Amino acid sequence: MVLRRCRRLLRDEALAVDTMHDVFVNLLVHQQRLDDRGVSSLLYRIATNLSLNRIRSQARRPEDPSTEVLQRIAEATRTEEIAHARSLLDRALGREPVSTATIAVMHLHDGMTLEEVAEAVGLSVSGVRKRLRKVKALVEATLAADGVAGEEAA
Asked: Three-class SS string for 63-119?
């Protein structure tokens, strides 16, 4: 029932499954508030709210090409992809503090949330966001200097 609701609202299988998992995590976190009646309607309401929140988040922060390039760099697996990614990042982040690269790796490669990264590196969430925007801008500038389109970069 929960997965069906998420699928209906999100129209994306992977996102629906992730949201469904979030529904049950949310339910476990708030289990002390549960009583035996109305559990199905509670699940339905949580699924609806989380799905709508995801839709709103996507509308506020649509994927941009630089994020896609950074994600492909983070997910590089073949030797030549990794070598190209390293070269690009070395040129883009050459003058930046090591902590900036660390933040990018934690968030983009390790999948940590902004809050988790901020706690780990001792910065505020807005500080982490600012550093990630800077990484994106540096990568875009490096790609532009190389004359490479975002789709061909990684």
From this structure: CCHHHHHHHHHHCCCCHHHHHHHHHHHHHHHCCCCHHHHHHHHHHHHCCCCHHHHHH
Q: What is the pLDDT of residue 102?
A: 87
Q: Using a CB cutoff of 8 Å and minimum separation of 24, what contacts does 122-129 make?
A: 128/103
Residue 123's SS3 state is coil
> For residues 34 and 20, is the Cβ–Cβ distance under 8 A?
no
Local structure of residue 135 (DSSP, 8 states) = H
pTM of this structure: 0.48
User: Which two structure tokens, joined as six digits, stand for 75?
Assistant: 């997910």
- Show the domains of the chain with their CATH numbers: 2-60 (no CATH), 65-152 (1.10.10)
- Collapsing DSSP to helix, strand or coil, 124 comes out as coil
